[in-house]
Amino acid sequence: MGSLAVYGEEEVTISFPSQSCIRDTTAMTESSDSNYKNSIATVESLPAGGLSMSQIDALSGSDAAEVAAPLVIDTTSSSVTHFDLVFDDTHHCLGWNPTDNQWEQILVVVDNEDELVLESAATVYEADSKEVKIGLEQSRNPELKDIAEFIWRYVEYTYLETDDLHNVMDEALEELSVDEE
Question: Is the pLDDT of residue 37 over 70?
Answer without folding.
Answer: no
